[in-house]
Design brief:
Length: 167
């Protein structure tokens, strides 16, 4: 059986949380500083699972979740509702094997049928692989917020990128 991409279910949340927590604990690329418990991750899942603008997809291979992508609200004010913020992550030993591309391809195809005008991504720097992935999908650099996140006793920059989704 090959890899499939499908909408995430509540049963996938432990695996999504495990992937997320790896990056929380071991890297600067996610600005959370403490790992999430299952109960703490539930509100995020609900906010990213309306099945329309806000959705979470997983990549599954032979019954194992190897990555996920999510589109959620960019800001809470109503005027921002047609803009979504996206993220993507995969299990550490699968980085660079095309899972992020597979997930984003499916996510953007699904979002094309929703009332989404702009897609944005904030990428902690340095992160050349993520920058390249976003550029591959047509994201353009908008600007960098310098030293806006503190983790592991160091300040990190965030590159903001965007792409137009609707014509």
């Amino acid at each position: 059986m090959g890899m499939i991409v499908r909408p995430a279910t509540l049963a996938d949340l432990p695996n999504i949380r495990k992937i997320h927590n790896y990056y929380v604990e071991n890297t600067h690329i996610i600005f959370d500083v403490r790992p999430f418990s299952p109960e703490q991750r539930m509100p995020w899942f609900q906010d990213h699972s309306d099945g329309h603008r806000h959705q979470t997809l997983v990549a599954e291979e032979t019954g194992m979740i190897v990555g996920y992508t999510a589109a959620g609200a960019f800001r809470t004010k109503e005027a921002y509702e047609t803009t979504v913020e996206v993220s993507v992550a995969c299990i550490p030993d699968q980085v660079g094997k095309g899972i992020g591309s597979l997930l984003y391809r499916e996510l953007f195809a699904r979002l094309q049928h929703e009332d989404v005008h702009r897609v944005v991504a904030g990428i902690a720097q340095p992160n050349a692989p993520s920058n390249a992935l976003h550029e591959q999908f047509g994201f353009k650099k908008v600007g960098t917020f310098t030293e806006v996140g503190r983790k592991f006793g160091k300040y990190w920059d965030v590159l903001w990128m965007e792409k137009m989704l609707s014509a």
